[in-house]
Amino acid sequence: MQAMIDLETLDTSPRCTILTLGGIKFDPYSDKDPDDQIYMRIDLDDQDRLGRISSDSTIEWWGKQDQAAQDEAFSEHDRIPLQEAMVRLRQWVWGSSTVWGHGYGFDMTIIEDACRQVGEPIPWNFWQVKDSRTLFSLCDKDPRKVLGQTGLHNALADAYFQAKGVQMAYKELGIKK
Questions:
Q1: Helices 107-118 and 82-93: crossing angle, nearest 10°?
Q2: CA–CA separation, 77 and 64 (whole Å)
Q3: How far is 130 from 124, CA to CA, in rounded Å?
Q4: How is 47-112 classified by DSSP, letter by letter?
Q5: Which of 23, 42, 69, 75 has the smallest CB count inside 10 Å?
Q6: CB–CB of 164/132 below 8 Å?
Q7: Alpha-carbon dihedral sign for residues 126, 131, 106, 81
């Protein structure tokens, strides 16, 4: 089993404030729907106390996104401290052979920085991390567009469509076990 992780954040730097974290486990060699999932809203005040970063440009960008995406990302409901989120993520990702993010140096780099900051072990080895953005660029068309991705900028929905996209890319590119 492999894991796809997606973040929604308030900046693009490794030390950025994390709004939400979504993840889904999947088998890239099959068409089976991903199922084992995790979704967390991270406490913003906690991250502010830790000195995590927000940028005006990213906040302005959020203001231009779909209202449903904004409402979900900024909801105060069920927010948990950053350290608790990193513990839950480590427990959830345990046993995954590969961990995917969408873009080099974003999701995984931010999570690794957060783990270091709160004193939690990084939940994967460097060689387990893969980038779906690079994989999708090898396809004739971005698989998420073929799928008709919905729920943009919802971390769990993005993780789901990225995982389905990896399955489609593996099939299109003839990647086998």
A1: 120
A2: 22
A3: 11
A4: HHHTT-B--HHHHHHHHTS-HHHHHHHH--TTEE-HHHHHHHHHHHHTT-SEEEESSTTSHHHHHH
A5: 75
A6: no
A7: negative
Say whether 150 sits in a helix, a strand or coil: coil
- Do the beta carbons of residue 21 and residue 44 sit within 8 Å? no
Residue located via tokens 């693009």? 12
Task: Give the tokens for residue 15.
Answer: 């030390």
Do residues 97 and 1 make contact, with C-beta atoms less than 8 angstroms apart? yes
List per-residue pLDDT tens for the chain, 177 residues long.
Answer: 999 999 999 999 999 999 999 999 999 999 999 889 999 999 999 999 999 999 999 999 999 999 999 999 999 999 999 999 999 999 999 999 999 999 988 999 999 999 999 999 999 999 999 999 999 999 999 888 888 777 679 999 999 999 999 999 999 999 998
> Amino acid identity, residue 176?
K
Residue corresponding to tokens 């387990």: 128
**What Å distances lie between residue 169 and 66, 95, 118, 151, 157, CA to CA?**
28, 23, 36, 21, 18
For residue 170 the two structure tokens come to 């593996």
